[in-house]
Amino acid sequence: MLVYFGKQGRGAPELLERFAREHETELEVVHSPEEVHSLLNRALPGCLILDLEDEAEAPLELCRALKADAFTSIVPVVFMAHGDGDDLSTSALVAGGDEVIRIGLPEREKWLRLQSVVRRAVRDVNVHPTTRLPGTIQIERDLAIRLERGESFALCYADLDHFKEFNDRYGYNNGDRVIRLLSRILRDLVRGLAPGGFVGHIGGDDFIFTVALEYMETCCDEILQLFDDLIPYQYSEEDRRAGYFLGKDRRGNVHRIPLMTLSIGVVTNRVQGFTHTAQVSERAGEMKTYAKGLPGSVYVVDRRQAFTDEFDEDA
Q: How far apart, in whole angstroms, are the C-alpha atoms of residue 225 and residue 96?
């Protein structure tokens, strides 16, 4: 999907309409920053095109806001500039724009510039295709920035329990629906409860969210509560009422498979200093594994000062 932001009453340029048709993608026209933010809260488009006229501060401010937000910064932004001065292009690039296309350029060049941005986004932006959340590259980058700035943070490794058995019983389409549900729970709650928070998708049913330390408990509590409220409705009424279904292990033995739960392993730099992202990810993996050994939906916080100390459990 492409999104075009222009003045009220102005439709998208013919170039964009033709580009969308030939690439068999939807073109959405919006006329206010609020509409853009609302749209990007629902889905991440392949490209956002901002109409930039002389003295037009609104699209520049919109771009700055989007690029400052970890959830929307991955969306490529193209400015279509009506003026001829270099200052306009400079302002657009300083605001975070990925490309500036001048209206006076030959149609072929404008087309190729737009096509280059879209292709570059597909090639370079590391997002998971199911959830459109940032992938491992952005997860690593976000953590590295927090370490470099000396921020107090909590990195939370979330993983579904009994997801494979659900997938085997209900099929991968329903499995993908659960993955998308969890991604929205994490994205919406972290965004609403933890300013500056970040959510990434490692792959499969593994997610990372990183928040300022003071928001960790609230986020984890709310995420687990909402997950437990919603996940039973992903099952058939029969399985939901029973609270389990019968499934076979690899040896063919029949077991009761409980409804899915969510385990979160939490690592903070409250008492443990970290100098490299690998140290944090190693600890997070340990905590996630420990949490998965506990019953129900839980989060477990690593409060060790040394690697031989004990964990603390929260639920």
A: 37
